[in-house]
Amino acid sequence: SLNCVEWSLLPPATKEMVAQAEQLKGRFQGDPSFEYEYTEINAEDAERLFEDGKEPMIKEEARLVATIEQIDRAVGIIPRGAFVKTPLGSVHENRNFEGLSLTEAKKLSSYFHFTEPVNLKNKTLLEKADLDPSTDFLDSLEHDIPQGSWTVQLEKGGTVVVLRSLLWLGLTFYHVPMTKQYGYIYFGTGEKNLDLPFML
């Protein structure tokens, strides 16, 4: 939105958009038509990005789309059991999900990345034996690298569990135990905290 009254959907992100946006540093300008220049870029990335001979320009709107995609992929999360996988492989919202207990809600292992699993494929058969294939089909937050990239806090006298990402500062996830209420929101600068390994 340019006036906070009329709103329109952003276009879907492409792999090229994400690759170009990852090379950019600094905050957003606030102008969707602003064009970024590639200043600090190494030779290998430059060759990959400029393979057609002309220097690509990325507008702020495309950078915003790519940044949202990166945030959703890296730190978009759901509580365990909120979605189920059928024997045929399709994933659906679990209508029987009544929320996590307070004890479970305080554990990082009770939350999953809501994206295609990566670490799950690397588990041994012994580790997979303890998992329920209908609910444990995504990557758990407890195995995120670096360790300690999430904070878990209790708010409102222990009635709301809040998780905050230290990788994407400004990402806040909430869950009200014993209810279906959960979600996440991002209020940040759009910059990944690349110094996180040195801060832990």
UniProtKB/TrEMBL annotation:
The subcellular location is: Cell projection, Kinocilium; Cytoplasm, Cytoskeleton, Flagellum axoneme
Q: Which GO terms describe its biological process?
A: axoneme assembly; cilium movement involved in cell motility; motile cilium assembly
Acetylation is among the record's keywords: no
| Broad class of where this protein is predominantly found | other
> Does the record carry rRNA-binding as a key word?
no
Give the UniProt keywords, A-Z: Cell projection, Cilium, Cilium biogenesis/degradation, Cytoplasm, Cytoskeleton, Flagellum
A cellular component term, taken from the record's GO annotations: axoneme
**Superkingdom of source:** Eukaryota
Its family? Answer: Belongs to the flagellar radial spoke RSP9 family.
Q: Mind telling me which PANTHER family this protein's record contains?
A: MITOCHONDRIAL RIBOSOMAL PROTEIN S18, RADIAL SPOKE HEAD PROTEIN 9 HOMOLOG
User: Any idea what this protein is called?
Assistant: Radial spoke head protein 9 homolog
